[in-house]
């Protein structure tokens, strides 16, 4: 029993270090700039009303606006009117820090657009990967043909090449055909998952031949067999592969950084966050941490809900 | 049996033919993409590494081995190799050891241990770039949590620790801006992010170790936990270890997100964190020096392929240590 306490102590110490940045990220995303600077306010911050200086500044009236507002303030001087307007602005512009941070995250940068781009890119990558890999995996696992060994050998060789490593020639090729700064550029290098082919082949090998023969008797074409017989049997493996693929591409920063320059319309979530950081001055730590939280959370929540599947999916590469 | 097979084949030669054609049809999209996206770029990089090509130029000159010469003679690239290998040599052993240690502890605790498994796996799931930005805040020299925490120890008994005493007297390190610390901070974050992945792989490996082996070892006089680990667990985890080390190496070689987030301009204080992926990005993409970028790419590919081939060779020999 005492031994177990020691184990827990060590593991808890590790857990504190592992969780520290997540704790800080959430905590900063709740706090006001002042609290972040001073390091006060505990986890949630005091959530006192704060005034958004940028918002107030935008409402600073010019001469014409003061003149226009004059009838509402009869008998006052211009500077008094201005003070009254600014006082009203300060009231209108005060919010709770948590609301301030999360609304700024969406207003200051097109975060929704970034999230949508992330979704489009990860979903198309996964969809095309399956479309390309499944028929090939089926052919390699269940059909006899001249050259099968050679094709499989090529798959094994290609497993050696990490796509990130050949990013430069891929970038040059895409630039040559004028495809940089497009969705195509974000998706294309990942359309072929050699690992997916390998994995699904290993899985298809375990599917009994009788099942396929029966389908052939029913007059199904080989392509129909892939989608209507093999695909349903492969759902667990495919789910694991989906998680593997989606996690990798939602989080990917290197490749989008290379092929997307300038146009915010194509930014994926990590790129958007990076740009936010580049623009930000000191008072924007809160909104930036809110953005980071929003980007990190979908996968973390999904992971907490379906832990076993996620761990299976991510460690898939262990099956090589 | 062979005769029957032969007779079936003889009876249906067109059937066999048809199946072969379908098979090639099914495999062709994958094959075409494999060539276009994986093999052609390797060749392109190989060819361009012998040229002085730049995007936008109509032609290029062959420069022979000049790009590679530069890689091995200029001090910038010496720093690149030092940074990359320091990172790999520090991150791989520590994250593998921590992964193994955590797996053994978690495994011995049974169901309660799953909580730790979940926690340690979180950094693997999280967007590294976002977490890098959070670490940057935490490491901020003045308002960062880390230095603020250290400052709290000033004036207390903890000041007997030399690091804290020095910090209280002369100020705590700048961390990311400090050429003596930058690479180690980078390594730390690499380990923080990656060891949970290794832990999970080891946990999978541990489920495959047979209980009877422990009983047998105990019969043979292996009483202490260390003896049981040395005689049973470690040898049984041999294949897992080979895999974990290889994949950790490949991931460590590819470090980029943290470097680019911390030091967008040129690889850290005194180029102490100028790792290879960042060099490829900076030279090849940002500065349009494609020849030199391709040369780094080729070198990078050689390292990674070499590592994977060693792994496959070890696995095929069915390694068992001890």
Automatic annotation (TrEMBL), chain A:
Residues 115-306 form the ABC transmembrane type-1 domain. Keywords: Cell membrane, Membrane, Transmembrane, Transmembrane helix, Transport. The chain crosses the membrane at residues 9-30, 114-138, 150-171, 183-204, 225-247, 284-306. It is a multi-pass membrane protein. It is found in: Cell membrane. Signal peptide: none annotated. GO terms for cellular component: plasma membrane. SUPFAM superfamilies: MetI-like. InterPro entries: MetI-like (IPR000515), MetI-like_sf (IPR035906). It holds the Pfam family BPD_transp_1. One of its GO terms (biological process) is transmembrane transport. Belongs to the binding-protein-dependent transport system permease family. This is ABC transmembrane type-1 domain-containing protein.
TrEMBL record, chain B:
Residues 81-311 form the ABC transmembrane type-1 domain. GO terms for cellular component: plasma membrane. The chain crosses the membrane at residues 23-48, 80-106, 118-138, 181-210, 231-253, 289-310. It comes from the Bacteria. It is a multi-pass membrane protein. PROSITE patterns: ABC_TM1. Its main location: membrane. The keyword Repeat does not apply. It is found in: Cell membrane. Keywords: Cell membrane, Membrane, Transmembrane, Transmembrane helix, Transport. One of its GO terms (biological process) is transmembrane transport. The keyword Transmembrane helix applies. Belongs to the binding-protein-dependent transport system permease family. This is ABC transporter permease. It comes from Litoreibacter roseus.
């Amino acid at each position: 029993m005492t031994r177990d306490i020691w184990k827990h102590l060590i593991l808890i110490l590790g857990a504190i270090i592992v969780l520290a940045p997540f704790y800080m990220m959430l905590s900063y995303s709740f706090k006001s700039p002042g609290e972040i600077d001073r390091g006060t306010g505990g986890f949630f911050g005091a959530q006192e009303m704060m005034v958004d200086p940028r918002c107030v500044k935008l409402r600073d009236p010019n001469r014409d606006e003061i003149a226009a507002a004059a009838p509402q303030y009869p008998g006052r001087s211009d500077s008094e009117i201005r003070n009254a307007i600014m006082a009203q602005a300060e009231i209108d512009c005060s919010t709770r820090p948590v609301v301030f941070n999360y609304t700024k995250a969406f207003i200051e940068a097109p975060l929704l657009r970034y999230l949508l781009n992330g979704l489009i890119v990860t979903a198309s990558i996964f969809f095309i990967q399956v479309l390309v890999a499944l028929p090939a995996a089926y052919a390699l696992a269940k059909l006899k043909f001249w050259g099968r060994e050679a094709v499989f050998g090529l798959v094994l060789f290609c497993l050696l090449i990490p796509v990130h490593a050949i990013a430069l020639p891929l970038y040059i090729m895409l630039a040559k055909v004028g495809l940089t700064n497009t969705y195509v550029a974000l998706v294309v290098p990942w359309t072929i998952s050699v690992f997916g082919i390998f994995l699904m082949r290993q899985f298809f090998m375990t599917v009994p031949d009788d099942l396929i023969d029966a389908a052939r008797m029913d007059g199904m074409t080989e392509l129909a067999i892939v989608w209507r017989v093999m695909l349903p049997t492969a759902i667990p493996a495919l789910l694991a592969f989906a998680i593997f693929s989606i996690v990798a591409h939602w989080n990917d920063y290197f490749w989008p950084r290379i092929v997307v320059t300038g146009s915010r319309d194509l930014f994926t979530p990590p790129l958007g966050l990076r740009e936010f950081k580049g623009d930000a001055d000191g008072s924007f730590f809160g909104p930036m941490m809110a953005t980071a939280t929003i980007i990190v959370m979908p996968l973390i929540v999904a992971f907490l809900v379906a832990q076993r599947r996620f761990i299976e999916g991510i460690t898939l590469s262990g099956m090589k | 049996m062979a005769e029957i097979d032969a007779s079936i084949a003889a009876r249906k030669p067109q059937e066999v033919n048809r199946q072969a054609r379908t098979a090639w049809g099914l495999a062709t999209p994958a094959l075409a993409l494999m060539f276009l996206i994986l093999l052609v770029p390797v060749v392109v990089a190989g060819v361009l590494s012998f040229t002085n090509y730049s995007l936008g130029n109509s032609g290029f000159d062959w420069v022979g081995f000049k790009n590679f010469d530069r890689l091995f003679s200029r001090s910038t690239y010496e720093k690149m190799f030092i940074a990359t290998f320091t990172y790999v040599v520090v991150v791989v052993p520590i994250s593998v050891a921590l992964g193994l240690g955590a797996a053994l502890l978690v495994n011995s605790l049974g169901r309660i241990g799953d909580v730790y498994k979940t926690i340690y796996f979180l950094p693997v799931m999280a967007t590294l770039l976002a977490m890098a930005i959070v670490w940057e805040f935490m490491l901020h020299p003045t308002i960062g949590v880390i230095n603020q925490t250290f400052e709290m120890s000033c004036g207390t008994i903890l000041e007997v620790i030399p690091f804290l005493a020095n910090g209280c007297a002369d100020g705590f390190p700048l961390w990311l801006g400090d050429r003596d610390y930058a690479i180690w901070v980078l390594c730390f974050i690499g380990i923080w992010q990656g060891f949970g992945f290794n832990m999970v792989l080891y946990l999978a490996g541990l489920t495959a170790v047979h209980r009877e082996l422990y009983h047998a070892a105990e019969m043979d006089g292996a009483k202490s936990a260390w003896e049981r680990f040395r005689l049973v667990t470690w040898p049984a985890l041999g294949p897992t270890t080979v895999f974990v080390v290889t994949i950790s190496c490949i991931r460590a070689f590819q470090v980029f997100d943290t470097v680019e987030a911390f030091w967008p301009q040129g690889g850290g204080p005194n180029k102490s964190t100028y790792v290879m992926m960042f060099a490829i990005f900076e030279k090849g993409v940002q500065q349009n020096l494609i020849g030199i970028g391709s040369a780094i790419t080729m070198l990078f590919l050689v390292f990674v392929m070499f590592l994977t081939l060693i792994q496959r060779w070890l696995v095929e020999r069915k390694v068992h240590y001890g």
